[in-house]
């Protein structure tokens, strides 16, 4: 175990032979092993996994490893992919008073890392303080594969747009025939092959290649328009331009921080995917050349190659999720599986171990776990432990109660896991939350210990004597910040019967929901049930389908919009007066024939109308009559006989839009983005319609091309009222805080 010739614990030393100090990275001290120094062997490649809940110290640990590489091992290079924007501060010495004291206790001094180079996307360089970066990075569009583009755009690889993109890339690389004139009326010319093409080259090919424009072998105009629109937008991403040689960026003894915090998540994933793929390819080539030189006894040509490299990734689950793919997923899987032989290491940090792709986490050989809260994450850590654990570490409570800055460490080369206290940072750590400057007593940060809630059960009962709180899953950090500090504390449910779903975070607190329920009770009090009480207020989730589409309405420009559909009824979600609402009647449209749909939309445009008007418009008397009867059967229209004619109008309760581009539907795009959350099965409303049925509904409104579809769950507080054994409920919107009668009716069968 003490495998470096002294009393230190050395992680990852496969040979067991003593190592020079420059190869050993100091991590901290083993707390349950007499404070023995813990070090990491950097002479061998590793896949290191660092995890922990928000504020537990995982990003801090990543910084400690980066500092050690910066200070000690001058034979390797390191790349930090920083999606949060916190590692630029490594250039500055630590100034935190508490940590300065700890540094003194450990005989260490604050120190900025001079060999750290921060790179930002080239398109953002003019807007960022010069003191926070040294240079910029950019890529040639030719560095991207068709998969890269599709995953970043969020389109299916084998959709018309995906196939068009693949064909265009192939044609630009090999050469193609360009049609001259709008209809080829001025002939054609050959375009030479171009391996280093730009976005403009792709656009030119899509819009002018003779084959892509042909009616027999080409693509629809709507597909070409949609793809060119996306590629034109990509020019504004800020990551395309002249590309530097990788060997000019990644050098021995240098830490390169790729600060992608300015980029949307999908584009950040693209940057990481390109980097991982390029580093792996370059090191494979370099390793082969080095092996040949070594066999011949010749000196290595190091100026034209990249050194063994450590790729360090914060918030790794965002780039390679356990479900779904990003542009970084496949390159990262290849990197960790194939990178060891050419001398590549990976350090992946995440706050959600269970949310990281299993093909990546299965490759780890060293694991450091800080404090975790959710059973699913803890189970994943136990499952991936590369060594045995002593009895005192096997209980999940050992991970739940870990103090900040302490981790459980496990290593294949050491036969048992142990606790390690991570050493203090030498350089400044910007991972703390920015707070308003105030008195010393009011200051807080991510590294501050949580404040214990002193509210007693008696206090809760006195304040909310009519409410029974159902046990719920632990509230995430974001929801804690959104809730009122005086809210009732909902205790964590220790049940393991949970699953991860996408949910919109609650913005209406428990206290606010109770006030809405109390107001509803008082309104009822005026009429009946004078002694009705609120029995329970509990969290529930309602399914919504979300579709990002390219929409081509008649006589209007193409637009990109997100449409939300009620996952139970099939009605379209809209928003008005700060409330979520649904259409009425849209779900019946897929049951109509093609002509019946056309007739319905004509009635929507002209109602009230007459048979004569419709018959003249469609030039079909019998077809109009039978179709109007069918619409009557579906309770969509009503016919009223007057003295001279029959008037056709919509049923009173029907609310069907003529176009998806109407304002209430665009306003529904303001629903907050959903995020992964663990919930109990009974909290989730089932009976979800499938996506094909939802898409049938959308297709009724015109030419639509789907870019992305996802099922997520919208939050509701369900308040249950009781009186003499009878009960009723109301649904309170968990985001906007109003009563939702429609959702209440849907929940009634399941909850009561």
Question: Descriptors for this entry?
Answer:
Rossmann fold; 752 residues; 13-stranded mixed sheet; 5-stranded mixed sheet; flat
Topology of helices and strands:
Layout: E1 9-11, E2 24-30, E3 36-41, E4 47-51, H1 58-71, E5 77-82, H2 97-105, E6 116-121, E7 135-137, H3 146-153, H4 160-174, E8 176-179, E9 188-191, H5 199-208, H6 210-213, H7 221-234, H8 246-249, E10 255-259, H9 265-296, E11 309-313, H10 329-338, E12 345-350, H11 358-361, E13 366-369, H12 375-384, H13 391-394, H14 397-400, E14 406-411, E15 418-422, H15 457-463, E16 468-469, H16 477-482, E17 498-503, H17 510-525, E18 533-552, E19 559-566, E20 573-576, E21 579-582, H18 594-606, E22 609-610, H19 611-618, H20 621-633, E23 637-641, E24 646-650, H21 663-667, E25 675-680, H22 691-699, E26 703-723, E27 726-733, H23 741-751
Parallel strand pairs: 1-3, 4-12, 4-13, 5-10, 5-11, 6-7, 6-10, 11-12, 16-18
Antiparallel strand pairs: 2-3, 2-15, 8-9, 13-14, 14-15, 17-25, 18-19, 18-26, 20-21, 22-24, 23-24, 26-27
């Amino acid at each position: 175990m003490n495998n470096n010739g002294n009393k230190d614990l050395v992680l990852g030393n496969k040979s067991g032979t003593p190592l020079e100090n420059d190869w050993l990275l100091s991590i901290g001290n083993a707390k349950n092993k007499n404070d023995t120094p813990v070090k990491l062997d950097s002479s061998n490649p590793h896949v290191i996994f660092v995890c922990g809940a928000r504020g537990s110290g995982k990003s801090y640990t990543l910084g400690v490893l980066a500092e050690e590489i910066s200070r000690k091992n001058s034979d390797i290079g390191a790349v930090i992919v920083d999606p949060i924007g916190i590692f630029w501060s490594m250039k500055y010495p630590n100034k935190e008073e508490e940590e300065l004291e700890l540094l003194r206790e450990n005989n260490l001094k604050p120190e900025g890392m001079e060999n750290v180079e921060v790179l930002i996307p080239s398109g953002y360089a003019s807007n960022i303080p010069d003191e926070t970066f040294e240079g910029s990075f950019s890529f040639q569009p030719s560095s991207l594969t068709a998969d890269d583009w599709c995953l970043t755009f969020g389109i299916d690889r084998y959709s018309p747009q995906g196939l068009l993109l693949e064909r265009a890339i192939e044609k630009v690389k090999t050469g193609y025939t360009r049609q001259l004139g709008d209809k080829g009326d001025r002939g054609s010319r050959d375009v030479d092959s171009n391996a280093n093409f730009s976005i403009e080259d792709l656009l030119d090919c899509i819009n002018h290649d003779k084959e892509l424009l042909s009616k027999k072998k080409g693509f629809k105009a709507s597909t070409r328009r949609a793809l060119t629109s996306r590629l034109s937008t990509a020019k504004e991403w800020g990551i395309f331009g002249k590309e530097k040689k990788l060997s000019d960026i990644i050098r021995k003894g240098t830490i390169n921080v790729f600060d992608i915090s300015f980029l949307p998540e999908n584009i950040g994933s693209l940057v990481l995917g390109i980097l991982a793929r390029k580093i792996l390819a370059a090191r494979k080539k370099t390793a082969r050349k080095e092996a040949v030189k070594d066999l011949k006894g010749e000196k290595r040509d190091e100026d034209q190659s990249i050194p063994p490299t450590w790729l360090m990734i914060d918030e790794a689950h965002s780039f390679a999720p356990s479900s779904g793919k990003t542009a970084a997923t496949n390159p990262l899987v290849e990197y960790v599986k194939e990178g060891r032989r050419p001398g590549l290491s990976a350090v992946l940090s995440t706050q959600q171990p269970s949310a990281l792709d299993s093909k990546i986490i299965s490759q780890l050989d060293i694991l450091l776990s800080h404090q975790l809260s959710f059973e699913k994450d803890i189970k994943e850590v136990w499952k991936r432990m590369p060594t045995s654990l002593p009895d005192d570490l096997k209980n999940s409570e050992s991970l739940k109660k870990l103090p900040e800055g302490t981790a459980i460490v496990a290593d294949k080369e050491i036969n048992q896991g142990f606790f390690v206290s991570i050493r203090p940072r030498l350089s400044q750590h910007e991972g703390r939350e920015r707070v308003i400057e105030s008195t010393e007593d009011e200051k807080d940060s991510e590294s501050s210990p949580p404040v214990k809630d002193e509210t007693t059960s008696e206090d809760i009962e006195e304040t909310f004597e009519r409410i029974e709180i159902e046990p719920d899953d632990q509230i995430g950090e974001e929801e804690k910040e959104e809730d009122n500090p005086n809210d009732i504390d909902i205790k964590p449910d220790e049940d393991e019967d949970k699953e991860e779903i996408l949910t919109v975070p609650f913005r209406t607190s428990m206290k606010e929901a109770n006030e809405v329920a109390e107001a509803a009770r008082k309104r009822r009090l005026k009429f009946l049930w004078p002694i009705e009480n609120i029995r329970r207020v509990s969290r529930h989730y309602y399914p919504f389908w979300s579709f990002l589409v390219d929409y081509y309405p008649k006589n209007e420009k193409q637009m990109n919009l997100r449409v939300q559909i009620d996952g139970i009824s099939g009605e379209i979600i809209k928003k008005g007066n700060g409330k979520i609402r649904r259409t009425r009647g849209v779900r019946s449209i897929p049951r109509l024939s093609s002509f019946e749909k056309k007739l319905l939309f004509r009635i929507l445009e002209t109602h009230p109308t007459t048979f004569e008007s419709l018959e003249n418009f469609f030039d079909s008397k019998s077809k109009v009559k039978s179709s109007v009867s069918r619409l009557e059967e579906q309770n969509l229209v009503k016919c009223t006989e007057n003295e001279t004619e029959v008037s056709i109008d919509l049923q009173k309760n029907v609310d069907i839009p003529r176009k998806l581009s109407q304002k209430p539907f665009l306003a529904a795009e303001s629903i907050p983005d959903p995020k992964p959350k663990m919930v109990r099965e009974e909290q989730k409303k089932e009976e979800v319609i499938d996506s094909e049925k939802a898409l049938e509904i959308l297709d009724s409104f015109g030419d639509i091309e789907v870019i992305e579809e996802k099922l997520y769950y919208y939050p509701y507080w369900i308040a249950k009222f009781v009186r003499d054994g009878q009960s009723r409920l109301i649904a309170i919107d968990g985001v906007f805080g109003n009563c939702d009668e429609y959702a209440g009716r849907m929940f009634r069968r399941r909850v009561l």
